[in-house]
Write a sequence for this structure.
């Protein structure tokens, strides 16, 4: 039986001159905030355009260089939230985001407490369970307090809160000369409404609803008083609604609203993920990692009018990114082709149709990034609809071709065809700035990205002596993407009856293959250089970029072994994965963002290229390295990147302190590598699933793949190691599907 609160409501306003004293950081912690940021363990939740960043106790901390909060459409709607027992922060016992990524659970207990009735409560006699999830623009929380003492107690607890409505870029540290107006809070019996009118004339609102009715309620604090008998529990519910006027509000009391929303969130995830293929192996630790990967992918999906779209990552990239979504869709194409369809359709609708130097936009170019916050609306940052990536456009066409190969969906490709031809036209008219056949980049907006490939940090493209390259810059992997795009446009064109166009694309692709091997190959380093600078001088640097060229047939047979050796030698392969830049290069630093770190998605694309050229042993090494890395990371989750230090038996990979986790293309890495080692591909024309020389890594004795779907049919298979070979058996199938094993 749940106890009832004592006391009545006291509506108390906070003085306008008084900064809310949220009590989130002690003096010692506040002074050390910057130093400890890299060691903090945070939990993230996401649902559509809402995401939250919380500390392990469930609090939202507030202080210099701390950007925790509840964010909605690139604005922080809640910037402080704490729970206290008798003004004391409870002791953390455990904290986890459950495997399905819906619910965050935190177990806490009390310190030694001096109660307000003059008695003392020894530590570890109260258990506090905080349960939190996001759904439909709101954050729901239930706090359960249970008394394990043999005596009853009068307990006072409080929740303190604060909303600064900071733009996401402001929360990350950008300074603004002006801000909008903080509106007068509105306090009712069990609710507080906080609002802000931005310089963009938009009013943003946070509504907090409590249950039971607080003993006292002010603009920044809700206080509750309970009489708790031995063995009894009490419950506190909180709803934090972002812009509640945008959607129909529940009329249910908070306890029922919590339960109904939790059921709806679980059902939505189950319905979305049920269409995907599933993976189970003999290695339970790997199963945990692959389940986390799949759940991360579906958590990051946001439903658009055009279909599901994977947001890039939490916390700072929980929005539309073109390149990230295209690569994620490519990695998950075997698993769930509807993701690729949603990505292609969204990017087609938002393809640039005119020149806009502020947004680096040109007709036919594909999006890089979309931002919805106040600073983007006011052009204080250039990312409202920003097109400053050099590779999104060829990757768009490349994915369209792969989607057709996977599904045979000519109808969708017919709809996309005008966008495909516009993308190819952008490559020829704008991408190739000097008419030499290569695609180069150089920003038109000084506040835009200086480097516009996937390695977009300012120092990622350089010469052998470490001097930064000056543009316009032609990246080696981008030329491979352009080549693949032209080949894809040719295949799609023929399926749609555009034979002359297809022949022209094949001719241009052939010419690019020749010129690329003349201009980008360097005998001294035995591989393709990372880039050509603005004077067409080679940046003679070994890099993982060269591995992306293997996704195509641009590499002549006599050069293949050299490229692979450069990627898999000890200077490049850390034991966990291939470094972005190998040891020995001028700017090599295993702790650098792009100059020596290991990125899972980078490795997945390279492994996909290895398999294209029959290099299964090398692909299996990448699989083993990254699957082992996942087992050493929090929640069995591969992060955006980790440091490139050489693998040691004594420890896991060294954490990169501010890596996004989860990140879409990192989450898609393990599923992509499963496809790689299985040699799995689809033949929609003959409604067949094919396995080309499959292998099982040493740590996995058997593997089961469920719901491999093509052409409206499906099958489930079991793969078992038999000596150096594998045996594949069909467990279950629909009527007409075929399975083929190709040795």
């Amino acid at each position: 039986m749940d106890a009832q609160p004592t006391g009545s409501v006291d509506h108390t306003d906070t003085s306008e001159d008084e900064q809310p004293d949220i009590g989130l950081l002690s003096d010692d912690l506040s002074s050390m905030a910057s130093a400890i940021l890299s060691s903090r363990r945070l939990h993230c939740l996401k649902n559509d355009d809402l995401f939250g960043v919380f500390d392990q106790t469930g609090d939202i901390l507030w202080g210099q260089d701390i950007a925790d909060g509840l964010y909605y459409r690139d604005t922080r709607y809640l910037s402080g939230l704490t729970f206290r027992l008798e003004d004391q922060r409870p002791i953390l016992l455990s904290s986890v985001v459950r495997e399905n990524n819906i619910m965050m659970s935190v177990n806490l207990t009390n310190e030694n407490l001096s109660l307000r009735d003059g008695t003392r409560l020894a530590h570890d006699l109260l258990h506090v369970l905080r349960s939190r999830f996001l759904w439909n623009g709101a954050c729901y929380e239930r706090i359960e307090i249970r008394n394990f003492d043999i005596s009853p107690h009068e307990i006072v607890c409080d929740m303190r809160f604060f909303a600064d409505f900071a733009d996401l870029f402001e929360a990350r540290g950008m300074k603004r000369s002006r801000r909008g107006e903080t509106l007068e809070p509105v306090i009712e019996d069990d609710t507080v409404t906080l609002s802000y009118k931005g310089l963009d004339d938009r009013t943003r609102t946070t509504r907090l609803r409590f249950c039971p009715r607080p003993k006292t309620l002010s603009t920044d604090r809700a206080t509750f008083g309970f009489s708790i008998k031995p063995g009894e529990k009490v419950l506190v519910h909180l709803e934090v609604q972002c812009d509640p006027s945008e959607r129909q509000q529940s009329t249910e009391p908070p306890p029922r609203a919590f339960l109904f929303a939790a059921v709806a969130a679980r059902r939505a995830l189950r319905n979305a993920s049920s269409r995907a293929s599933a993976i189970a192996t003999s290695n339970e630790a790997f199963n945990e990692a692959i389940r986390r990967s799949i759940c991360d992918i579906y958590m990051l999906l946001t439903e658009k009018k055009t279909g599901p779209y994977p947001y890039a990552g939490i916390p700072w990239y929980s929005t539309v990114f073109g390149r990230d979504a295209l690569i994620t869709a490519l990695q998950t194409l075997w698993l769930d082709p509807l993701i690729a369809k949603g990505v292609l359709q969204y990017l087609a609708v938002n393809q640039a149709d005119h020149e806009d130097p502020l947004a680096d936009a040109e007709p036919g170019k594909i999006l890089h990034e979309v931002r919805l916050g106040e600073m983007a609306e006011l052009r204080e940052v250039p990312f409202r609809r920003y097109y400053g990536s050099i590779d999104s456009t060829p990757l768009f066409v490349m994915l369209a071709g792969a989607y057709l190969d996977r599904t045979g969906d000519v109808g969708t490709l017919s709809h996309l065809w005008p966008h495909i031809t516009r993308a190819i036209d952008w490559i020829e008219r704008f991408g190739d700035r000097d008419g030499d056949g290569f695609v180069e980049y150089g920003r038109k907006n000084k506040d835009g990205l200086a480097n516009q490939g996937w390695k977009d940090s300012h120092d990622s493209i350089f010469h052998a002596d470490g001097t930064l390259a000056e543009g316009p810059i032609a990246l080696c992997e981008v030329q491979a993407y352009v080549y693949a795009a032209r080949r894809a446009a040719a295949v799609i064109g023929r399926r749609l009856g555009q034979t002359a166009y297809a022949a022209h694309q094949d001719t241009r692709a052939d010419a690019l293959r020749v010129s690329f091997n003349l201009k980008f190959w360097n005998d001294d380093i035995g591989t393709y250089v990372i880039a050509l600078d603005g004077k067409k001088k080679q940046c003679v640097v070994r890099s993982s970029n060269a591995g992306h060229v293997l996704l195509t047939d641009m590499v002549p047979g006599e050069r293949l072994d050299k490229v692979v050796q450069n990627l898999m030698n000890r200077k490049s392969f850390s034991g966990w994965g291939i470094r972005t830049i190998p040891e020995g290069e001028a700017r090599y630093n295993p702790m650098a963002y792009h100059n020596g770190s290991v990125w899972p998605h980078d490795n997945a694309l390279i492994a996909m290229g290895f398999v294209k050229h029959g290099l299964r042993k090398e692909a299996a090494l990448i699989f083993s390295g990254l699957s082992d890395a996942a087992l050493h990371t929090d929640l069995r989750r591969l992060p955006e990147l980790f440091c490139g230090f050489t693998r040691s038996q004594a420890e896991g990979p060294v954490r990169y302190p501010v890596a996004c986790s989860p990140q879409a293309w990192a989450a898609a890495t393990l599923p992509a590598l499963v496809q790689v080692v299985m040699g799995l591909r689809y033949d929609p024309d003959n409604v067949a699933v094919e396995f080309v020389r499959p292998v099982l890594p040493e740590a996995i004795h058997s593997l089961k793949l469920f719901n491999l779907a093509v052409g409206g049919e499906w099958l489930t298979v079991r793969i078992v190691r038999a000596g150096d070979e594998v045996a594949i058996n069909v467990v279950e199938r629909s009527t007409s599907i075929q399975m083929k094993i190709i040795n």
Q: What stands out?
A: DSSP finds 18 helices and 36 strands in the chain. Residues 410-431 form the longest helix (22 residues).
